[in-house]
Amino acid sequence: TPGSSVTTSVSLSNNGLTSLDALAASDSIRNIAAYNNSISDPSALAAMPQLLSLALDQNLIADATTLTGLQQLQGLSLARNQITNVTPLGALNGLLALDISRNGVTTGITALKPLTKASVIRSEGNGGVRCIDYANLILALGPVVIFDKCKLF
Fold first, then answer.
1. CA distance linking residue 138 with residue 8, whole number of Å
2. DSSP state at residue 116
């Protein structure tokens, strides 16, 4: 019907996947859940700018740079991966929710300042982040960051 939209969701969780290459040709997928796999390189998703939500928790992702072209993303969950630098995620300024918890993040928290539409950014379990970086992010965005540990210096 006119004015309506179809949202296609794909769940590929718990399948031992090492790649999402097979999805790259689809232009109808809007939501992907592919947690608890062995994906280390999500670059195939760069060919899917129509994605609205993406859950890649519990994989082997160390670099999120290839996700920066997903400008329509509203929700991104990368919890329990191997990401230490979240600087590239600051380019996703349409995000409403971001989960980077339990990654070992040490760099890039203040680079998330462009995420002005975000209502929640989960970042707990990243003990390598300095408290001042969280404070600067909160000052820029308002009370949107949830965290439990940080280094004072």
1. 34
2. T
